[in-house]
Write a structure and sequence with these properties.
By secondary structure, this protein is α/β, with parallel strands linked by helices. 34% of the residues lie in helices and 20% in strands. The protein has a 5-stranded parallel sheet with strand order 2-1-3-4-5, with helices on both faces. A 5-stranded mixed β-barrel has the order 14-15-16-18-17. It has a 3-stranded parallel sheet with strand order 6-9-10, sandwiched between helices.
């Protein structure tokens, strides 16, 4: 029996998918990269942008046609809004939250298919959803008990907000022996007006620091060289458990002290922090410890204070500038990444120009730029989406062009320097290996030595492009 997983969206979804894979393999499924070979296909969905949800609909419509010719079970999990959940109940055999993942084997083995009718017993808000017939024949190619609608008392499906701690106890199937993700919290309390995360993942819940450190140490001992700790707002870690858990700065300190004691060489990254909770102590920890990578991802979303207020970001550009100033002062070698939304409701030419100007001011090494699209449930979905698509695209291209101007200049200044890089695998350029610097700048160098993959090497930079650098391997 084979499974195929499609993972959409952010690094958190990728991390979630690694735990889904582990559960399926414990049941007895074998991974396949070819969905047409699979007996069970799942999607780790992302509701942040409509484009991601459109992909899910397109894929499941194709898979459901395959059921006429083969045995197939489908499921969807991840970040799913209530409005999408209603529609998914008609299209997928199973719809569950990550907190319910520990019960996946029971969903498959005991109930066969989690029917829409059964889901309505758990989600009262879905009682008015018109569902397909519950007498659907079992599509799976393995023995299942007859489909039954379990009572709420005995159901294996817990309420969505319960049980994320059990989910964290599942050991992931890490996607690489070189890089790994460690979730340190789930959910979000910020309620930015454009964002769906509080409605898909719930309120913030911090993972015990002892578990985080145990997973990190295990990965380092196994030889993993790059570890990213994840959360919707990592620097608010521990705030939901004041007095019972350490702060984010203290967590970084524990990681840094372990790095000083370890004989292993590794880099630790974190994403994403929120400017509202970014403290000097966090930046001081990154500056102090060698294993904490000198790269900061600090989402700004807009360079205009009025837009930030409409977004409910709860920080001003003055606050943001103070944070960047502290980073430049304490960690001058650090690269700076950000997230930006263009075309947010009511964004004027002047407000957009303020965002363009911060690209020049901060000279980001990378900016993930998104064209605004309303998400059902988020506050801004009730407002007019009044910026035309063509205008959003134009603003997107302007910011992208502005960004590459500064990344090209930064990368050009690296020519002649010798940099430490982590080798990740084959590059798209024939005869080259792909790597990245501590600041997560993509690098390549000529080599056919596959034994270098997963190792740190030094390269002397010989050329630069806006989003990458190239160099010669230095034989140590």
């Amino acid at each position: 029996m084979k499974y195929h997983i499609v993972q959409l969206g952010c690094q958190m979804n990728i991390s979630d998918g690694e735990r889904v894979q582990k559960v399926l393999e414990d049941i007895g499924f074998i991974q396949t990269d070819k969905p047409e070979e699979a007996n069970i296909i799942g999607v780790i969905a992302c509701s942040v942008r409509q484009k991601g949800i459109d992909k899910v609909y397109n894929m499941v419509n194709v898979w459901n046609k395959w059921k006429n010719k083969k045995s197939l079970l489908t499921f969807v999990s991840g970040c799913v809004l209530p409005a999408d959940k209603e529609k998914f109940l008609k299209l997928f055999d199973m719809v569950f939250t990550m907190s319910q993942l520990p019960e996946l084997h029971e969903m498959i083995g005991q109930y066969g298919i989690v029917t829409p009718a059964g889901m309505q017993g758990i989600y009262p808000e879905l009682n008015n959803v018109e569902t397909k017939e519950t007498s659907n024949p079992n599509p799976a190619g393995f023995k299942l008990n007859p489909v039954q609608i379990p009572s709420i008392k005995n159901t294996a499906l817990k309420k969505p907000e319960v049980g994320i701690e059990d989910f964290w106890h599942i050991e992931p199937k890490y996607g690489s022996g070189v890089e790994a993700y460690i979730p340190i919290q789930n959910g979000c309390d910020k309620f930015c007006t454009y964002c769906a995360v509080p409605y898909t993942r719930g309120r913030e819940v911090s993972r015990p620091s002892s578990e985080i450190m145990a997973e990190l140490k295990n990965l380092v001992e196994k030889g993993v060289k790059s570890i990213t700790i994840l959360g919707q707002n990592v620097n608010s870690y521990g705030l939901d458990k004041k007095g019972n858990e350490i702060s984010f700065a203290e967590l970084l300190q524990e990681i840094g002290e372990y790095g000083n004691q370890s004989v292993k060489d590794f880099w630790v990254y974190f994403t994403s922090p929120h400017p509202r909770d970014m403290s000097d102590e966090v930046i001081e920890m990154v500056a102090k410890y060698d294993c904490l990578a000198k790269q900061i991802h600090l989402p700004v979303q807009s360079g205009d204070d009025k837009v930030l207020i409409r977004m409910n970001r709860n920080h001003s550009m003055l606050k943001y500038r103070e944070i960047v100033s502290t980073i430049r002062r304490l960690i001058p070698q650090a690269t700076l990444f950000t997230d930006i939304i263009v075309g947010f409701t009511g964004e004027t030419e002047e407000e957009f120009e303020n965002t363009r100007m911060i690209m020049e001011e901060f000279k980001y090494n990378m900016a993930y730029i998104a064209q605004y699209s309303p998400r059902p449930g988020a506050t801004s979905s009730r407002w007019a989406d009044d910026i035309q698509k063509d205008e959003k695209k134009e603003r997107y291209h302007i910011l992208t062009s502005e960004m590459t101007k500064y990344t090209a200049a930064y990368n050009k200044n690296l020519i002649g320097q010798t940099l430490k890089v982590l080798v990740r695998g084959n590059d798209r350029k024939q005869g080259y290996l792909s790597a990245y610097t501590e600041g997560r700048i993509v690098a390549r160098f000529a080599s056919d030595n596959k034994d270098l993959v997963g190792k740190f090497v030094n390269i002397k930079i010989t050329s630069a492009a806006p989003l990458s650098i190239e160099g010669d391997l230095i034989n140590n």
